[in-house]
């Protein structure tokens, strides 16, 4: 994990840089302009500069491993359960970024029920410049609150989707890890957390707390949520 440091001002511009999250959320670091200018693609193949996604307001950006990752699927299913009204009340945007072709965005959203913003970085250029890890680091990540079913059977289902899909691919580099950032407005970085392995997602409610979004009930017990 990257631990907080109160007086870090180094720009984030390359994969080798170790980026520390400031302890004061109002004192963000600066994302290098070259990274902010890199493009992401939406479901219609429209290019958007990465920095435009968080230019106007504080934004939670979740970088995924790949669209056939079962653990990522469960995590995004829970992101989908965050009511838009919760985000609007806090003036916060939620964005998921994958590393597949843009062709897979629509089917992934249907599969997960995710309706917030989503883009892809198919060349993984932003992943690299932000220092996202490749490979599995052996580390105890604990039990994720977002994995509520059998991990083995779920992973086998994802493999079956890869094999039986119209194009046999893993919808991204299987070795690529993701991470979570809090960015904006402008090129300010308030928080960055890089996943060490596929189980190392930051619990969603702990991220929401950092941006003043109210707690969401992610248990399987039904709850009444007014959207």
TrEMBL record:
Q: Which Pfam families match?
A: AhpC-TSA_2
User: What InterPro entries does this protein map onto?
Assistant: PXL2A/B/C (IPR032801), Thioredoxin-like_sf (IPR036249)
SUPFAM superfamilies this protein is in?
A: Thioredoxin-like (SSF52833)
Task: Please report the name of this protein according to its UniProt entry.
Answer: Peroxiredoxin like 2C
């Amino acid at each position: 994990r990257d631990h907080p440091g109160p007086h870090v001002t180094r720009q984030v511009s390359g994969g080798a840089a170790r980026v520390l999250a400031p302890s004061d959320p109002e004192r963000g670091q600066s994302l290098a302009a070259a990274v902010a200018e890199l493009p992401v693609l939406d479901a219609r193949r429209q290019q958007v500069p990465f920095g435009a996604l968080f230019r106007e307001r504080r934004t939670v950006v979740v970088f995924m491993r790949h669209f056939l990752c079962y653990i990522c699927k469960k995590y995004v299913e829970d992101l989908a359960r965050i009511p838009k009204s919760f985000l609007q009340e806090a003036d916060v945007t939620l964005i998921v970024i994958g590393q597949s072709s843009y062709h897979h965005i629509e089917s992934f959203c249907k599969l997960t029920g995710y309706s917030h913003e989503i883009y892809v970085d198919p060349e993984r250029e932003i992943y690299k410049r932000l220092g996202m890890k490749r490979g599995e680091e052996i580390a105890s990540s604990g039990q994720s609150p977002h994995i509520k079913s059998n991990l083995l059977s779920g992973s086998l289902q994802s493999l079956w989707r890869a094999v039986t899909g119209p194009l046999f691919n893993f919808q991204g580099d299987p070795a690529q890890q993701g991470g979570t950032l809090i960015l904006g407005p402008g090129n300010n970085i308030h928080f960055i957390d890089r996943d060490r392995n596929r189980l190392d997602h930051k619990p969603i409610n702990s991220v929401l707390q950092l941006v003043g979004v109210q707690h969401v009930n992610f248990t399987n017990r039904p709850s009444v949520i007014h959207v």
